[in-house]
Amino acid sequence: MDHAPENTISSFSKALEMGVDAIELDVHLSQDGEVVVIHDEHLERTTNGRGLVRDHTLTALKSLDAGGYLGEQFQGERIPTLREVLELVSERAPLVIEIKNLPIPYAGIERRVIEIAASANALERIQIISFDHPTIKRVQMVGAGVASGILYMGRLLNAVSVASEAGAAALCPHWSSIQAMDVRLAHQAGLSVHCWATSDARVVRMLSSIDVDSITTNDPSGVASALGRPGPNNEMSPERGHSGDV
Q: Taking the model in full, what pTM does it have?
């Protein structure tokens, strides 16, 4: 989102061009049950629409401008569906799908996401994450074995146990909520650690030093540069991984 309107085809295309290792996005359900890609439950911040996503049909959502707020060059950008993004990304990068089930709950969204990924033969290329940990437990009930992770901010008393209870294979803490011991304990338990969301060079180097598995960022090139490694398209790439929160 530092380079193009967030959660749009333009943004995902730019992320692929930059050579990210994974793409992160956010999903909600439309009024008619389509999985749509947008960060907020409200339309006002990133589109010219008003109201809740869930109160609009896919046709109505597709009529909105989702890019003009960032400049004339992005006018006419549309809210994409999860199907469209899976088609764009194909096998070029894994997709990290954040299910937004708070504060607006969407009954059955876990099943819809898994059905769409299955229809695109993408179940092995996705990871589902959420701040709503019961959502992750339902993901495992619907699609056992689908990669998943618990999002959180603040230090949990026992993050490994929380992940185990939810059936998750990954911890996804805010970068300020993780310490070296947390990473060691997670890795010992067979969990990966994916921190969000920063492009601050000092924070990036600190996270690399404690061996996190990836860093979610709005500026992948900035993260790569902070780690000082050449990568695809003469960009810089991190020592372990970087994903675009785009």
A: 0.92
